[in-house]
Write a structure and sequence with these properties.
Layout (H helix, E strand, L loop, with lengths): L1 H14 L4 H13 L3 H14 L4 H13 L3 H18 L2 H14 L2
Helix pairs in contact: 1-2, 2-3, 3-4, 4-5, 4-6, 5-6
Length: about 100
């Protein structure tokens, strides 16, 4: 099932390489099949193309946390919190703050 979604999302990106949501969704699918490096790469591409895409900061932070890259996770959460606050996205900001608090314990 995930493989089918991956193929569909890749096709969407071929048609529109600037589609942040499809790239983000593809990253989540790769994370779901434990291809963490590919997932991180895609999320970083989202942020290169769309530096205001808050969910990408949050998910890449979680993935860095998952693989033990604490400093990178902290950096992504902090950057994401700043962008979320600028956008008035208090929910995402608070979730990233909670993740950051866990890392700093």
């Amino acid at each position: 099932m995930r493989e089918q979604r991956i193929v569909k999302l890749q096709a969407l990106l071929e048609r529109d390489p600037n589609d942040s949501f499809s790239r983000y969704a593809l990253a989540l699918e790769y994370a779901g099949v434990s291809d963490i490096s590919r997932a991180i790469q895609l999320l970083l591409e989202v942020l290169e193309r769309d530096p205001s895409y808050v969910p990408a900061f949050q998910q890449v932070g979680y993935l860095y946390q998952r693989i033990g890259e604490r400093e990178k996770a902290v950096e992504m959460f902090r950057r994401g919190m700043t962008v979320a606050a600028q956008q008035g996205d208090h929910h995402a900001r608070n979730e990233m703050q909670e993740a950051l608090d866990e890392l700093e314990e």
